[in-house]
Design a protein that fits this description.
elongated, alpha+beta, Beta-lactamase, Peptidoglycan synthesis regulatory factor (PBP3), Domain 2, 2 domains
Length: about 375
């Protein structure tokens, strides 16, 4: 049996800077002031919501809708498949990839145009190709998919995200949709691109102003209509963190960019990269059978974590009270797990740092003799 030993991580306390936390629904100290109808910032790995405002309010989301369009279309179309652009798709209006009615184009090019250029004609062409031209049917598929992935405050009417009665989502749902869409390799690859070329020499340019400017941003999608305002969902990968920030209804493109960067900077500041355990450092020492001395233990691989600065950490060492002999150096003898509250942040195997052999017959007799004398003394 391996008893669990709870050990506060004292060394980590010195490395962490206590940050204010939200009280009575107020933003935590140092949180940025954001000029938008709604926003949400979350740690994609732990699910922690770091900041939010009107996260479940139903709002227009403009071209963020195209994440759902691509997801649904690719369930019915192959990336290497050629499809014919309908006349209806070319009449979508506003942002365009300059598609021509009747042209044959690869699905992969339409996906690039929908995600990078946010082209409405490309989104409608994808929907039309997938549904045989029945865009109402495609919208029904979008809503079925929304229910499947747990979007509780969303309803889709158009595949391009242009303003339409009954079309809405929320900051929380958009974040969830982005996480879902980023599970598709083609989406992950396309949204990282600032420019791309598709058929007929058409050049695509992203509307994502943080790409290549804010370190670690890898997408995801922007949007704008008169009704929706300026919207964006962004993902940053940095120091082992994956932070999503969604803004809906910003008054201008520059304000959206400014506020989104401020939200991401704040979220990143709530974490610190901490070397929790390093190979070669003794975490504790364990007794051995027959009184053969203590064996120091270390981790099999170093463990470094990005941890919340406002939450204490606890190491849980799972080890036997006494090691059976022989013990070999490098032998797996237990485990260490690091928690923040009830959340498991990381774990590693524990290994012996030195070898200890089995005693011979005389050694065992001597040990038993000492134990007998010790026990007899306890009787008097």
């Amino acid at each position: 049996m391996r008893p669990a030993l709870l050990v506060p991580v004292a060394a980590l306390a010195l490395a962490l800077v206590t940050a204010g936390s939200a009280v009575a629904g107020r933003p935590p100290a140092g949180a940025p002031v954001v000029d938008a109808r709604a926003y949400l910032v979350t740690n994609a790995i732990t699910g922690d919501v770091l900041l939010s405002k009107n996260a479940d309010k139903r709002l227009a989301i403009a071209s963020l809708t195209k994440l759902m369009t691509v997801d649904v279309a690719l369930q019915r179309l192959d990336l290497n498949q050629y499809v014919t652009v309908s006349k209806l798709a070319t009449k979508a209006g506003e942002e365009s990839a300059h598609l021509r009615a009747g042209e044959r184009i690869k699905v992969s090019d339409l996906v690039l145009a929908a995600l990078i250029q946010s082209a409405n004609d490309a989104a409608d062409a994808l929907a039309g190709a997938a549904s045989g031209g029945d865009l109402k049917l495609f919208a029904n598929w979008m809503n079925d998919e929304a229910q499947e992935i747990g979007l509780e405050h969303s309803h889709f009417v158009r595949p391009d995200g242009l303003d339409a009665p009954g079309e809405y989502s929320s900051a929380r749902d958009v974040t969830r949709l982005a996480q879902w869409a980023m599970g598709l390799p083609v989406v992950r690859a396309d949204v990282r691109m600032r420019t791309a070329m598709i058929s007929r020499g058409r050049r695509l340019t992203t509307w994502d102003d943080l790409l290549g400017v804010f370190r670690g941003v890898v997408g995801v999608k922007t949007g704008h209509t008169d009704k929706a305002g300026w919207c964006q969902v962004a993902l940053v990968h940095r120091d082992g963190l994956r932070i999503y920030a969604t803004i809906l209804g910003s008054p201008s493109r520059s304000q959206r960019d400014h506020d989104l960067a401020a939200l991401l900077r704040f979220a990143l500041s709530r974490y610190q990269v901490v070397p929790v355990a390093s190979v070669g450092d003794s975490l504790t020492k364990v007794e051995t059978a027959y009184g053969r001395g203590l064996v120091p233990v270390t981790v099999s691989r170093s463990l470094t974590l990005s941890v919340r600065t406002d939450r204490p950490l606890v190491e849980k060492l799972i080890l036997p009270r006494r090691l059976a002999l022989p013990v070999r150096r490098g032998q797996h003898v237990g485990d260490v797990r690091v928690y923040s509250g009830s959340e498991l942040l990381g774990e590693r195997e524990l290994v012996a740092m030195r070898s200890v052999g089995k005693p011979g017959l005389l050694g065992k007799v001597g040990w038993y003799g000492k134990q007998t004398i010790h026990n007899l003394r306890g009787w008097f």
